[in-house]
Amino acid sequence: MAMNDSVNILNSAYLAVEYIDSFLPDNPLQQPFKNAWNYMLDNYTKFQIATWGSLIVHEVSYFLICVPGFIFQFIPYMQKYKIQQDKPETWEKQWKCFKTLLFNHFFIQLPLICGTYYFTEYFNIPYGWEEMPRWYVLVAQCFGCAVIEDAWHYFLHRLLHHKRIYKYIHKVHHEFVSPFGMQAEYAHPLETLILGAGFFIGIVVFCNHVVLLWAWVICRLLETIDVHSGYDVPLNPLHLVPFYAGARFHDFHHMNFIGNYASTFTWWDRLFGTDSQFIAYQEKEKKKQCVTKKKAN
User: Fold this and answer.
1) If exposure means fewest CB atoms within 10 Å of the residue's CB, which of 150, 163, 201, 251 is most exposed?
2) Which residues of 120-141 are buried (b: 16+ CB within 10 A; e: fewer)?
């Protein structure tokens, strides 16, 4: 009975969103996107699209999303939004990070990406424009993928902090006490495989079109680069996502090494009390700010 009620609620929500969508103006980018998509289908094989297309989407998205945070370090005005202001980025650290990223992307992630075509073939995942889900379905699917990945990341990330294995794997990612956006995927190859596995679970559950692979890649990169950016910028649209952790939440994890283990949302840390040190730290900072304001007045 409860299952039927849940299905009815989801169907009603879908119909409501579909009804609202019918009143929205046409997307001016839809036709160019359709033309580009069909051109891709006409000129490239499924293997090329799934493999090299996925690699291009990942690489272009990763480094484009990193650009704002990279530029912030050269803008004095933005320094007031830097979380750890006493630890500026250095060229040496950024170059070291970039070299490790290239190794991980092309020697660890690329072999995994090569399996994308066989995944889509095995599960009969469509590529065509007509089978592509509507934008609100993609948004819901990406949110579902994020929920699943977040649960995987919390428990496996917390395990990687166990004192018996931390120094062998996860310590590499924590070389940077003050993170910056490009450092999001700076990790030991084993960590790339262990934590990266959570990315694929949602795909297996929700994927009904190859476009979800790319949409979820972009969403995941937006999130992980944002929380590693080192900047807590106001009016960040990601803060509109319910229970979103954000840069300040994850920055504390790099600064403190303990707690705040989740990747995207705050509920697992709140449920298991692993955000207690972060909450205490926030309260301490608020008291400092109050004292400073009183002295200024």
Assistant:
1) 163
2) beeeebebeeeebbeeebbebb
What are φ and ψ of residue 125, in 5° steps? -75, 125
What are the angstrom distances between the C-alpha of 14 and each of 3, 19, 55, 209, 242? 16, 9, 32, 18, 19
Q: Which pLDDT belongs to residue 27?
A: 74
Number of Cβ within 10 Å of residue 159's Cβ equals 14
Cα Rg of the chain, angstroms: 21
By 3-state DSSP, what share of the chain in percent is helix, strand and coil, each rounded to 5?
A: 70, 0, 25
This prediction's pTM: 0.90
How far is the C-alpha of 13 from the C-alpha of 230, rounded, in Å?
37
241 neighbors 231 (Cβ within 8 angstroms): no
Q: What one-character DSSP code corresponds to residue 166? A: G
C-alpha span between 98 and 220 (Å, rounded):
19
Quickly list H helices, 22-134.
30-43, 46-48, 54-72, 91-103, 110-113, 116-122
Which residues, listed in sequence order, are joined to residue 82 by a DSSP beta bridge? 231
Burial zone of 8 (CB within 10 Å; 0-12 exposed, 13-18 middle, 19+ buried): exposed
3-state secondary structure of 242: coil
Whether 234 and 259 have beta carbons less than 8 Å apart is answered as no
Residue 204 CA to residue 202 CA, distance in Å, equals: 5
Residues of the chain with pLDDT under 70: 1-24, 292, 296-297
